[in-house]
Amino acid sequence: MKAQWSYSSLKTFQQCPKKYYHLKVAKDIVDEGGEAANYGKLVHKAAEDYVRDGVPIPPQFEYMQPILDALIAIPGKKYCEIEMGIAIRKGKFVACAFDAPDYWWHGIADLAIIDGGRAWLVDYKTNKNAKYADTKQLDLLAAAMFLRFPELLEIKSALAFVVSKEFVKKEHHSFYKTRYLEVMKPELDRLEAALDNKVWNPISGPLCGFCPVSTCVHHRKRK
């Protein structure tokens, strides 16, 4: 069975297949998100409003203004929170709407700046530091950009850790766009096997105390 997925949903499956099942397949549990997730949403909204509309940044987020000002200074057309999708049609990867019925992958780029054949792609992170940065997310977003904007030849992308003011950078080239879509293949193969076999084994880990699946044998109350 072919999965419809995003970077974040596949990371959820990696964390715990049982959690993925309840949130994404059965959809009998809703993850309301914790304090960190809600903080991240506020940061993203403040950045979007400032870059797109010039709305002043709330005082509690002023620490990220130098980063956003530097991004605003980059020449080119700016797209904030741009939704993108990829479908497989007639055996080829093609751009599609984020919510297209036949999407294969979809994701949202926090900021994309396009200037002719070049682009800059930024994903904001609110982690305390960049220790566990994963650039595979950038690979997927860059591939989607190349498919949606075929005039692009190269993309400079970065995970912008706005709290610690760190940038994890990467360069992408249109020639390799298909290769970028294979970065999550081992995880995707395991997800599709779980969908075919209907086996969703729980995994015990440090985030079990934050999981909304209270019926899991590994569930524990958050301290």
Determine Rg (CA atoms, Å): 18 Å
Main sheet makeup: 6 strands, mixed
| Average predicted local confidence, pLDDT | 94
Work out the number of β strands. 6
Q: Please state the second-level CATH architecture of the domain at 65-183.
A: Alpha-Beta Complex
End-to-end CA span = 39 Å
Supply database-style keywords.
223 residues; alpha+beta; six-stranded mixed sheet
Description:
- This protein is α+β, with helices and mostly antiparallel strands.
- The chain has a domain at 65-183: Lambda Exonuclease, Chain A (Alpha-Beta Complex).
- Helix content is 34%, strand content 25%.
- Strands 2-1-3-4-5-6 form a 6-stranded mixed beta sheet, with helices on both faces.
- The mean pLDDT is 94.
Map the helices and strands:
Blueprint: H1 7-15, H2 17-25, H3 35-53, H4 65-72, E1 77-89, E2 92-96, E3 103-115, E4 118-125, H5 136-148, E5 154-161, E6 166-173, H6 177-180, H7 185-197
Parallel strand pairs: 4-5
Antiparallel strand pairs: 1-2, 1-3, 3-4, 5-6
Helix pairs in contact: 1-2
In short:
The chain is of the alpha+beta class and about 220 residues long.
